[in-house]
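User: Sequence in, structure out. Go.
Assistant: Echoing your sequence, followed by the structure tokens.
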Amino acid sequence: MDLFEQISEDRQDKALDRLETMLALYEAESEIEQDLALERATAYCEREWGSYAAGLDGLATRTEARGAGAVETAMTSLRLREEGDTPGSIIQAMRQQRRRERGLLGEREAVIALYGGEEAVASPTPFETIFIAACASLAEEGAQTDPFAPLAGWQLPWHPLPDTLAVAVTTAFPLPGTVVAARAECLKWEERLRHLELLFQCPGSGTLPTACAARRKLVEDLWRRDVNAASLDDFSARLDYWAERGGDDGGGYAVLLRDFAAMAHGLSAKSSRESTKDRARRLKSEHPEWSLATIGKQLGISRQAVHKHLKGFNTAV
């Protein structure tokens, strides 16, 4: 490399160093400063390399050469080239991230206000204490006061619940009797986990006390399959589970088919029953001497309703 090439390379490095300094201002707190930094960087690139894209490409190339294939280096060079193709994309991404963070911060403050303080959010709720107290005897010696200790040897939610633990959380508070009620309680537990995550400002940081995690597992099983759908609302709630979180192993089809068959049978039986109008007319035919009030008493409806059902059936009424 001759002297002129060395001078040219040094000048290129200095120009890229200056451009890198300008790009650092894209993270400024003030949006005005960000916009000014973009204007300065654009003008500088046009003067030094002929275009903004060419300057960003040069910086990306140098980043790749210095990073020796590291993943972080590859991502940085990719972002630089995207910025060259779409000026301002780095700034827009930064602003979107900050808006999301501000939104989460506002949500966190709302949760803290709802509970009455950070300590209250972190502490077990009154509903949780029901299960914690009911299951404390299942903890190992010396761990009865730790709500997160294993109970009857159980702690991991993907493991089957021991019978003693299942009985304890069921006895402490009655289980939901319908699919709709099971979904409602399960979503409440998930909301509680979300509140804990917001408090600790870390996804996945929310953890329920062991007894409450056991309760949640039972309730989710009810929502998934362990209680039969008894109404269209139940069937809709069951369908909601398998559509949103049931997985793709095909197990949901059997559950939904079972529920659908039961619902179809119930609807068929209901449709085959004698209607109130038919019953009113049958009673009048069998007992022509009965008054409207007497028929109404038999059917549990008003005299006026009986008159409406019999209208046109018996002109003597």
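User: And one key feature?
Assistant: Residues 239 and 256 are 7 Å apart (CA to CA).
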